[in-house]
């Protein structure tokens, strides 16, 4: 009697192969999924990783900002008015950038608080961080910097200088991410979508930007808001004299970069940055962190440190300087209520 054997039809072979591939895929996907799950559920966060992630988020958001501006598909709307009565703009660039930035960070670290200027009404992005840390970060920050996740607040501005964005004044536009620990800014990223330039600072660890060699505080150039100016000109003249040069500009990120050394020909240079009206913390947190990483300061007009936890706004005005006697500058300012 001939020995019995198992014979599969061609269809059976195909089914068997498909099932085999499926099993391998699910096993592999399961390993990846479990690794991401364990990573996401960590109760501590490596700030070096979070810096790299913040840079990636700012760049990805910036790509959306640039694409929508160049395609001229802004879909411009109004969010209402500021406390000073100026119109607050909202564009597709703001919303798309928000979705890219917010969900990239939140998908990677679900346990940390992320505050954004915008709110996504559509389904979230499924993007996951590549976990690649740029060489420029590894060179300056060789080791891990773990902190408890519940101490972290991330502030993101998906499109700083929306008013100027709608006017096609591209040089003022930035995307920004800031990481605060216990309300103190420690990591700041400011990205210029239309040039690809990215500035970052990590307090106590390093930065890829630097202050200029000197600053003039006797006859300073003071950079101020062009769209939310309030009474800033009279305030500055009262402090530093009527001949003080005032530079109106858009975007808080752009204004902070004006205090630093730059190879960008479109970037104006200033000796200090002053703001006298209400301003949101996602506008200023990244710049505050970068200045701190370089020994500079950003305070209220009374010289108080700004707390980046709790409420989203800063009512106390703003003075930013670097390589100067900051307390001395505060004393020169008119009384502030």
Automatic annotation (TrEMBL):
It is a single-pass membrane protein. Coiled coil: none annotated. Mg(2+) binds at residues 117, 157, 159-160, 283. Pfam families: Inositol_P (PF00459). Belongs to the inositol monophosphatase superfamily. Keywords: Hydrolase, Magnesium, Membrane, Metal-binding, Transmembrane, Transmembrane helix. GO terms for cellular component: Golgi apparatus; membrane. Pathway: Polyol metabolism; myo-inositol biosynthesis; myo-inositol from D-glucose 6-phosphate: step 2/2. The chain crosses the membrane at residues 12-32. InterPro entries: CysQ/Inositol_MonoPase, Inositol_monophosphatase-like, Inositol_monophosphatase_CS. GO terms for molecular function: 3'-nucleotidase activity; inositol monophosphate phosphatase activity; metal ion binding. It catalyses: a myo-inositol phosphate + H2O = myo-inositol + phosphate. Its cofactor is Mg(2+). It comes from the Eukaryota. One of its GO terms (biological process) is phosphatidylinositol phosphate biosynthetic process. It is an enzyme of class 3 (hydrolase). It is found in: Membrane. This is inositol-phosphate phosphatase. The keyword Plastid does not apply. Its EC number is 3.1.3.25.
């Amino acid at each position: 009697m001939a020995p019995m054997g198992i014979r599969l039809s061609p269809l059976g072979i195909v089914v068997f192969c498909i099932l085999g591939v499926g099993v391998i895929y699910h096993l592999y996907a399961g390993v990846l999924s479990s690794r991401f799950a364990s990573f996401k559920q960590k109760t501590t966060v490596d700030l070096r990783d979070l810096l790299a992630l913040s840079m990636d988020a700012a760049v990805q958001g910036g790509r959306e900002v640039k694409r929508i501006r160049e395609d001229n598909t802004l879909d411009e709307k109004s969010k209402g008015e500021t406390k000073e009565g100026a119109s607050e703009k909202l564009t597709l660039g703001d919303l798309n950038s928000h979705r890219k930035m917010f969900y990239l960070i939140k998908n990677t670290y679900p346990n940390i608080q992320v505050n954004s200027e915008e709110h996504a009404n559509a389904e979230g992005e499924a993007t996951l961080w590549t976990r690649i840390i740029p060489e420029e970060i590894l060179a300056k920050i060789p080791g891990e910097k773990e902190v408890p996740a519940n101490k972290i607040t991330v502030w993101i501005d998906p499109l700083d200088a929306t008013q100027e964005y709608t006017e096609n004044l591209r040089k003022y536009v930035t995307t920004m991410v800031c990481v605060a620990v216990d309300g103190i800014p420690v990591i700041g990223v400011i990205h210029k979508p239309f040039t690809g330039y990215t500035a970052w600072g990590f307090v106590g660890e390093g930065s890829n930007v630097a202050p200029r060699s000197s600053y003039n505080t006797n006859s300073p150039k003071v950079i101020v808001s062009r769209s939310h100016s309030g009474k800033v000109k009279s305030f500055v003249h009262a402090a530093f004299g009527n001949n003080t040069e005032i530079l109106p500009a858009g975007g808080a990120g752009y204004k902070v970069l004006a205090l630093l050394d730059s190879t960008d020909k479109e970037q104006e240079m200033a000796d200090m940055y002053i703001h006298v009206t209400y301003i949101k913390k996602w506008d200023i947190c990244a710049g505050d962190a970068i200045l701190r990483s370089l020994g500079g300061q950003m305070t209220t007009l009374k010289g108080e440190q700004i707390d980046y936890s709790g409420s989203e706004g800063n009512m106390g005005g703003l003075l930013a300087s670097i390589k100067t006697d900051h307390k001395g500058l505060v004393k020169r300012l008119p009384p502030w209520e």
